[in-house]
Write a structure and sequence with these properties.
11 helices, alpha+beta, 6-stranded mixed beta sheet, about 300 residues, Aminopeptidase
Amino acid sequence: MIRKILYSDIDFQKYNYCVENAVQTIFFGTSHYLDTIITGKWEVLVFGDYQAVMPIPFVKKYGAKIVIMPMQTQQLGVFSQKDDSMINQLFLEFLNKNYLVYQYSFNSNNHFVASLSSKTNFLIFPNEYSNVKKNYSVHRRRNVRILDKLKDRITFDEELDIQQSYDFVLKNNLGMTDSSNLKFLKNMEKLQKKGYLEIYNLSIDNLIASQMFLVKGNKECIMVGLINNKKYSQYNSSSIIIDQILQKYIPNYLFNFHGSSIPVIADFFSRFGAEKQRYAIVENTKIKMVLKFILSKIFNINDNSTN
């Protein structure tokens, strides 16, 4: 019923048609996005003749395929024209039986027979900006005002050359190692070359205070990075730059905050009036994966994840 199709055998026309016309459609699931981020390092589980599909990203270590979500890819899961919890359950069982899963995130519109752990995402749906702003908290509406003392000092513009972002990100994205920041920037560079990424700067006195990395699909904008210079935190630059982006895009695009498991950041997003959504996840510890791998070898289990 469910079968695995290796990357080299995927019918990309059928695959993309399924993803783009699915009730769960999201730009992360398209072959264009996945090939930009992890070229060839994914395969597909298929139900029927591409009536439902589930992309499986992986890395190879110690002779095994380990399923892990790529950087800047929040959700994947099952894509179909009608979400069916029974079919989704079949995909889930096939995944757990045939792969070593470290981390996999389903789509917020995927439902299952069994309950799963979940994470939170935040969305603002297309609407007139004036209506969206009415849903800001009182505190957020106050924070996005550009006061008279800032009007002549603040600018908002698009950064066309990602090379100009390297120094700012490495200096200011303090919660990440230099190695992780460089991986992030290389991914952003790939996306920009394909035309999927826009970078925006909010500057004060001609110095960048906040920088946003925005992935654009046909119907949605996804905030995959927001880096702030703490020197300018008193000016609420992170709130102002999000508000500027919403003014530009929210009439025609869904805005995806890309979620957060950190309570203070989740609260920050929710104060823009964003709708909270949960999406199911499968996660395993490294010890559990090692034990599964060893047992599969001892008992000679045919683990398709190593094909």
